[in-house]
Each structure stands twice: as C-alpha cells, then as structure tokens.
From TrEMBL:
CDD domains xrefs: WD40
Keyword field: Electron transport, Heme, Iron, Metal-binding, Repeat, Transport, WD repeat
SUPFAM superfamilies: Cytochrome c, WD40 repeat-like
Gene3D superfamilies tied to this protein: Cytochrome c-like domain, YVTN repeat-like/Quinoprotein amine dehydrogenase
Start-end of each WD repeat: 1-42, 43-73, 84-125, 125-166, 254-288
Annotated source species: Bradyrhizobium zhanjiangense
InterPro entries found in the cross-reference section: Cyt_c-like_dom, Cyt_c-like_dom_sf, Cyt_c_1A/1B, WD40/YVTN_repeat-like_dom_sf, WD40_PAC1, WD40_repeat_dom_sf, WD40_rpt
Domain Cytochrome c: 301-402
Entry protein name: Cytochrome c domain-containing protein
Pfam families: Cytochrom_C (PF00034), WD40 (PF00400)
Amino acid sequence: MVGHGGPVRALAISPDGSGLLSGSFDTAAIRWSLKTDTAEQVLRYHADAVNAVAFLSGGRLVTAGADARIAVWTAGRQRPDRVFEGYGGPIVALAVSPDGALLASGSWDRTVRLWSLSDGASRVLEGHSQNVNGVAFTPDGRSLLSVGYDLTLRIWRLPDGQPEVVTLPAPLNAVAVAPDGEIVTGAVDGMLRMLTTDGKVSGEVAAGPTPVVALTISGDGTLIAAAGIGGTVAIIDRKSRSLLRTLVVSGLPVWSVAFLPDRETLMTGGADGKIRRWNAHTGDPIGSNLSGTPADPFAAYAGDPGADVFRACVACHTLSDKEVQRAGPTLAGLYGRKIASLPGYRFSEALKTMDIVWTPETVAKLFEIGPNAYTPGTKMPEQRIGSAEDRRALTDFLGRATSR
C-alpha cells in the first residue's frame, strides 16, 4: 500500500482486523481499509513526523508526533477532537490500557505520561535518564512498562506508579508484552531479551546484526516480529527462543510492524514509504506489489569499515538527495555545509544559531561527546561512537559517499 510521502514510522491494526492506521515522517497519518487496501482518510494535524499511532474504542484514533503533541480523532472527522500537550520533546511511543481508559506515551524528553481518555488529566512518570523509546501495558492493566536509551526497563506498578528498574546490556528501542505477561525488549545490539513479569531475564534471541527498532507479538503469543534498520524483519518462535526466518523487506530501515488478528499476517512499514503484507509462517509477501526487494544500498561499499559504522545512521539519513527523505536531513554534500542550513528540512530552532560547519573533525566530535552535548536542542537521538578508529572510518566514508 502506497500513500505516504516519506518513511512509515508507525502502524496499528483495528481490533476487528479490518483497518490499519499508519503514521509517517511526512507529518500525516492515514486510515486504511485492509479489505480493499485503499486509504479511507488522511489525517493532517501534526507539524512534524507522526511517530506513534493507536486505535481507541468507539471508532476513535490517536496519533502522536515529533511536534510533542498527541491528537485524539474520531474516524471521518477532519480535525482532532482533543489535543494533549505538555511534552518537551518528540513523542515516539503510545500504548492503550486494556480497559481503554488510559493512554500511555513516551518521549525523548525522558518522561512517560499517563493520560485519562475521559477527561484528559495527565500524570508524569519520571526516572529515565535518556530518551524513552517504548511503552506497553501488561495484559491485566496493573503495570506499565517503559524502555529507553539509558539501558533500563522500568515496570511502573499502577496506580501508585512506583517503578522497578531493570538494567539491560544495551540501549533499548522497543518493548512488547505477550498475552501471558512475558516482556520482550528490542535493543540496539540486535538482541531480543525476554523477561518475567517481575523483571527477571528469562531468555534472549539474536534478531540480526543491526539495531531492533520495532516489535510486535502475534495475538496467540507464539510469534515475535522484530524490525531492524538493516531492512529485515526477524520472525521468532517465542517459546523455543529460536529464529524461524528473516524477511528481507528492503535495503532500507523497517520502522514499524504489526500482526493482524489472524495471527499469521504481518504488516510492515519502511523507509521507502511503503506498507507491505507478509505471511509470517511462510515468509512470503502477500500482494502483487510486494514482488522483489531493492538491493542492499551498501553493496557497493562491501568491506568498507566506515560503511559498516554508517549502517546505524541509515535509519535517519540518506547519502543522496535523490532518495526519499527520512527522519533527518540528507547528508549529500555534507562537508562544508553550515549546520541547519539545508533547504527544505525543518531543523530545531536551537541549531539555527550555531556556527558549526560540518567537516570530518566536527562530525567526529559530534559522535565523540554525543549530540546532546555538542548540539544541544537537537532532535537527533543520543548516540556516541567510543572508538576513535571507528569515528575516523565513518568520517572518511562520508567524505567519499556524500561528495557531489
């Protein structure tokens, strides 16, 4: 299904399996019919990327974006019924409580918030020291889970909201909960880690060599789909902790995944702006528009250590201005360009006052001390490259790959 003008960042399936809601870096959300594979409504409100979406009861929808706003919609209406505000950074995750009364959201301002869907009252849950990347309710609705770049899973016991903190080996991008309450986390090291309801690690599976950025679990709890920035989705048997197959979606990041209620059909949304349908049990694409996948965009750089380092950046940046824009600006013509000067991209206001000019030295400094310290106010996720050799390989690669 094609309709977005940018990468598809978020997917949600309606409870009856007949509808799909997608959010994109193009600032729009689209409500689709899965019976006809056609767009039924385009929702336009957000001023920046739509990072998270969900279905609510009574024909309502919710969208959240990098503009730090949450919009609650009634299907068919052109404007939101209600808008929730208060965040100091992009919102990247949403979860609806099992009883439909509460909405949870996670933000790069390092907070989690609980919202009453009846009156809009909110509560802030603080404790994460880095970006919050995922939230999920437990099946009984008594706990809320959050994961962040600070390596922690937090289990917030409701209603008091006091957290149990579990520290894992790598920064966390996603969390999902199985029907029996088992917790699954996805990390930047490509690993899935399973935990018991009280936060004890009970197993792990390698999903792939690149960071896991999205997770979903089939309705019967048997399958996990883990999407990575390398353009693949790992299908994992949860009980045996084994990798069943890997779907090669494209050479570009897969940002979002969602199972249909039939427990075997998987929807994926990627950086190429397309939504694809798969049979998770066979690994086969469903639909004529899914035949064939693009080649690995880094094939020409095989064996280049700088290209290997850059794979962690491809989720947000292209090397060519001919490609579809992703979360961040294209890096084409990077060296010699003043920060926040590329036409056509909406930069953070804080960056526009800086005197940084991108060179191998300034790019290396960015990743040595981290974006938050070097470019405060940026929307770029916090990340560092600890090895001077890796930083040099990356800057050398960018010089070759982005020159015009």
